[in-house]
Amino acid sequence: MFYFRLAATNLRAHKRIFVPFLLAMTLLAIMNVIMLSVHADAGAIFGNNGVGVQAAATEMFKYGAIVMVILGVILAWYANGFLLKQRTKQLALYNVIGFGKRELRLMVEAELALCAAISISLGVLLGIAFSRLSYLVLGKMLGVPGHVAFGLDAVPLLQAAGIIALIYLLLVLLDANWLRKHRPLEMLRAASAGEREPKTRWLLLIIGLVALSAGYAAAIGITDPLGALQWFFIAVVLVIIGTYALFIAGSVFIFKLLRKNKRYYYQPAHFINVANMIHRMRQNGAGLASITILATMTLVTIATTITLYCGVPQIVAATDPADLSYLRATSAETKKSAITPAQNQAQVAALAAKHHVKIVKRTVATISASVPLRFVGNRVRLASDQDYSGLFGPKPGLMSSDLMTLAHYNQMTGRHLQLVKNEILLGGTRPLKQTTLQFGRAEPLRVRGTAKMAYQPNAAAMGNALLVFKDEAAMTHAVRAFGSKVAHFAAATLAAPQTTVYLQLKGTDQHQIALTHAIDRTKLGAMNVRGAADNRRTVLHWMSAFLFMGILLGIMFILATALILYYKQVSEGLADAKRYRILQQVGLSEREVKQTINSQLLTLFYIPLIVAGVHTAIAAPFIQRVLTLFQIFNWGQFAGIVAATLAVFAVLYVIMYKATAQVYFRIVK
User: Fold this and answer.
1) 146 phi/psi in degrees, rounded to 5
2) 3-class DSSP state for residue 539?
């Protein structure tokens, strides 16, 4: 009990550093309760979807919970390290009055036990309330019934409490190891001896420049969506390495350059700041780099998830270009099912009327074959595996290509075009300016005009092309020109064309979803039935889940940023208090001291925000290319969301800075 009473006294006496630690650990417990509750209830939340979607959502939130735990461990480790560093003097005094390493360890363990009891209790209680509140928000986005006991299940509460307890146990082990390796009295003497001027670390500076340049080059130079996805995490790692290296080594190099500029250096505010920064950036660099990375992660995570949520209409329009579509049975299958195309049309129309849906437009597209082709100049060849694995993703000119006869094209468009021998129509979702096309060694075909692609989904990674041939003979001749290896495949594929029926509907989403399911259940010679309304609901649920997780992770990043800001202000204030008292004693006025302090704080704490803004601006086009894989092509919308997110975060950052700066001023005074 003695150690617990002593621990309680220490918590009250050092509340300036313990209260933020307790707040951080309590918020960490709340975040874990929310994430684990979502994971536990994912089946109920996504109950309107299929079993596969429910399982996938459960898996996604499981990984989100794992990420939350990893971030929590890092945050707790950083905060605990700060506590030990700031309490070196106190531990040394206890050492002087007779406390050995065993007694110091027991005292620190009692302090962590009290902190654990407080943060777990508050975290679980507040976590229940915030879980229910977050469920109401998520449930509103997903249209989930309100009777689900989200946030009230005992299992995620016990799991969250267990996770926080394990983190505290890890801190106990780290503190015991720290006390075993260090002598508080020796550390106190080392701190009193002051800091030496750091040398410029040229190797680290060069590594930082190379890594950051390579990361930026990847973000700017890789224009292909799949290439951007392949290089995304590599670019992120390079930028993180470059940021840390440049803040640690580059900052010292820059301040030494400023010291050489006599006109700038020999001014009271600049003289003191530059001299301070040179000595302090070695230890401050890593902290400022951490703030920069956390700020960038916050901006990217929230902006990306908001864009995905707002891009649901674009995703649905690209994947389901018609309100309802289905594959109609081929002639062979029609004989087996005894349902003709006319009967299929009539029965689908009857089902639509039954479900209060009006068919506004009906389009029939018969594709003879769909093959990956690569267009190199006027030459066309069948795509190989190597064409998909270029350095920056698929090689230029690779497109998913649909082959169609002129008769089927005229049926689809309602036109009456004619082609003569060696003529072709060519169209695509990407510009195709060829005037002739040569398939293998065959005679070149003249491009007569542009083929319109009715209701053709856009394969964002490669793009789509439509080639319209005069007849099946011309098409077969062109495909066989690719070589004998594909001759058999071509004959089998072209002999079984696929007919897709696209319907434009008028009716509520509920009625259109009911119609989609009715056609899928009824034997009407229809296969692979897809409805835009049904897909919209599924995609909206997914994007809402992404947004929800992004907001939770964003809050976690902001919490970590605020904690690092606060602890840096406290450590800076404690280190600078004695220095500024000496400056006032040698004649520096209070106004000049304030100007110097403001200048130093602005330099230390606004540079990370500026660098984070630059990182985000460079990453924005890179991320947009990845978003095109989700069929989101609205660059203006994404740029606006990034700008709005940056503006909101900048306001929050300034508020955090202003609040924590008051702590610094109180310590210095």
Assistant:
1) -80, 0
2) helix
Residue 146 burial class via C-beta count within 10 angstroms: exposed 0-12, middle 13-18, buried 19 and up? exposed
Contacts of 272 (CB under 8 A, 6+ apart): 583, 596, 600
Residues 239, 244, 247, 252: what is their CA dihedral angle, to the nearest 10 degrees?
-130
Q: Looking at residue 121, what is its pLDDT?
A: 92
What is d(CA 422, CA 443) in angstroms, rounded to the nearest whole number? 8
Is 375 in contact with 431 (CB distance < 8 Å)?
no
SS3 568: helix
- Percent of the chain scored above 70 by pLDDT? 76
Q: Is pLDDT at 50 greater than 60 in this prediction? A: no
Can you say whether the dihedral through the CA atoms of 608, 614, 616, 618 is positive or negative?
Answer: negative
What local confidence, expressed as pLDDT, does residue 77 receive? 82
- What is the C-alpha separation between 417 and 410, in angstroms, rounded? 7
pLDDT for res 289 = 83
For the four alpha carbons of 654, 659, 661 and 665, in that order, the dihedral sign comes to: positive
Cβ atoms of 141 and 544 closer than 8 Å: yes
Query: What b/e readout covers 479-508, taking b as 16+ CB neighbours within 10 angstroms?
Result: bbbbeeebeeebeebbeebbbbbbbbbebe
- Model confidence at 334, pLDDT cuts 50, 70, 90, reads very low
At position 628, the amino acid (one-letter code) is: T
Q: Which two tokens stand for residue 77?
A: 């480790």
List the helix and strand counts (H, then E) for the chain.
24, 11
What's the confidence (pLDDT) of residue 392?
Answer: 52
Please check whether residue 222 is in contact with residue 228, taking contact to mean a CB–CB distance below 8 angstroms: yes
Helices (H), 143-250: 154-181, 184-192, 202-221, 225-245
Which pair of structure tokens corresponds to residue 192?
A: 């009193």
Cα gap 540→551, rounded to integer Å: 16
Range list of H helices, 14-153? 15-40, 42-45, 51-86, 88-96, 101-142
The number of C-alpha atoms within 13 Å of 348 and in the hemisphere containing its C-beta is 30
Asked if 504 and 323 count as a contact pair (C-beta separation under 8 A), the reply is yes
Inter-helix orientation angle 268-310/251-260, to 10°: 140
The letter for the amino acid at 596 is: T
Distance of alpha carbon 76 from alpha carbon 560, whole angstroms: 9
Per-residue pLDDT at 118: 92
Secondary structure (3-state) at 585: helix
pLDDT digits (tens, 9 = 90+) for 551-563: 877 887 887 788 7
Find the mean pLDDT for residues 323-332: 74
C-alpha distances (whole Å) from 200 to each of 205, 245, 251, 273, 419 are 8, 12, 9, 18, 73
Helix (H, G, I), strand (E, B) or coil at 606: helix
What does the block give as tokens for 493? 């594929």
Comparing 44 with 458, the larger pLDDT belongs to 44
Q: List pLDDT tens digits, range 385-406.
A: 777 665 555 678 888 888 899 9
Cα separations in angstroms, 535 against 158, 317, 458, 611? 36, 10, 16, 40
Which stretch of 239-253, 258-272, 318-332 has the lowest confidence by average pLDDT? Answer: 258-272
CB 625 within 8 A of CB 230: no
Say how far apart CA 323 and CA 506 lie, in whole Å. Answer: 9
In sequence order, which residues have a C-beta less than 8 Å from that of residue 74 and are 6 or more positions away?
560
Query: Could you give the CA distance from residue 418 to residue 435 in angstroms, rounded to a whole number?
Result: 18
- β partners of residue 446: 423, 436
Is the pLDDT assigned to residue 363 strictly greater than 90? no
Residues 6+ apart with CB under 8 A from 206: none
Phi, psi dihedral angles at 499 (to 5 degrees):
-110, 120
| Helix/strand/coil percentages in the chain, nearest 5 | 70, 10, 20
Look at residue 243 in the predicted model and tell me its pLDDT: 87
Strand partners for 402? 370, 466
